């Protein structure tokens, strides 16, 4: 798995030892080369390490996923799910995306804002009464459950622990199969099965009795005049559950960890709460919840002086691009003002770029802004209860297991 770069830097992009802090290794490999040959399981691919080349692939129409054309070298479990447009190319991609986008318009997000406020308020009040808080288990997770499966998909609020367990197993299972143990593959299969059974029953219920949520809208809507099939609606629910929960939980976890490890930035945000929106962008650049993604050349093309043939695969290290000092000044410094003012920094790749730019970004921002603002206001003297941070095993998704703080 590890490779020798042109300047003899050895690098293993997926070494579990890098989980705690992958950034020094990203720097070494970025400085060695923008593009590196890499053995991705049994698939030879190219790793893309620097910002400019990552952004060029994400925005270039000659790059995509290639599953519908039958040219992808990747065997990705996500691509097999009906309706899972994150791994689709135009024109299919656009049809599904258009339907789902309705849930994330400024108006819909405006309607969700009071709910997010109430949920966070209750969770922070309970923590203050108890005198202790785990930012993941007591705040980020229940908030994501309330907003995504329960509010967006209209699922049963009593199943919060199941949703978390299913999405964690499926999120770990989105790592390439050759990185997973047999138990993890079995856990993914079981979780996906349980999830599909649950959403299958829910779709039948909503078909009989529609409610005010995206799931009922998807049932009522059609793709190009034709209705979505039940497997497509179930697949879309699964995609939204996993793409939405794991990432928005990890934005709050990784972001709060950065703030608490940089108390000057926490104090600055307390004094200038209007910096919260740019601070979220800085969190997405500095310690992104999604660390890499994949693409395939849809036609013969050139990138960074290298020729690619149709069907060649690349792994785009977006987590590395965020720390590229060719683009970001003092890239290893966490600075909540970087995206503020008249000359904000270059767009980070935390939500990707191009046609697959995260459709749920407005909801992710709403959740993180509401949670972090409540802590700034109501628990201003927050401190880390421990210096030891344990990371989830996932490599695509970067997130911590728990973040206990003293209030
Ligand atoms: C901080 C939180 C989030 C992060 C960091 C994040 C990150 C991303 C990234 C990097 C992609 C693009 C992947 C690629 O280009 O290959 C993406 C796409 C997507 N995200 Fe998010 N996401 C977040 C929250 C959400 C939420 C809350 C939802 C929905 C509830 C969501 C739903 C989706 C969907 C459906 C796609 C596929 C879009 C497409 O292919 O057109 N995400 N997200």
Task: Walk me through what this model shows.
With 407 residues, this protein is of the alpha+beta class. It is 47% helix and 11% strand. The protein has 13 helices and 14 strands. The protein has a 5-stranded mixed beta sheet with strand order 3-4-12-9-5, with helices on one face. Strands 6-14-13 form a 3-stranded antiparallel beta sheet. A hairpin with a 2-residue loop joins strand 10 and strand 11. The N and C termini lie far apart (44 Å). 46% of the residues are buried. About 1% of the residues have low confidence. Protoporphyrin IX containing FE (HEM) binds next to helix 3, helix 9 and helix 13. The site of protoporphyrin IX containing FE has 24 residues, from helix 3, helix 9 and helix 13.
Task: Please sum up the structure shown.
This protein has helices at residues 23-32, 51-59, 92-101, 106-130, 135-152, 160-172, 182-208, 214-220, 230-261, 263-271, 276-286, 318-321, 361-378; strands spanning 3-4, 10-11, 35-40, 43-48, 63-64, 133-134, 222-223, 226-227, 293-297, 301-303, 306-308, 313-316, 383-384, 404-406.
Report the β-strand fraction as a percent range.
5-15%
Number of domains: 1
CATH topology: Cytochrome p450
In angstroms, what separates the terminal alpha carbons?
A: 44 Å
Number of DSSP helices? 13
Largest sheet: 5 strands, mixed
Q: According to CATH, what is the class?
A: Mainly Alpha
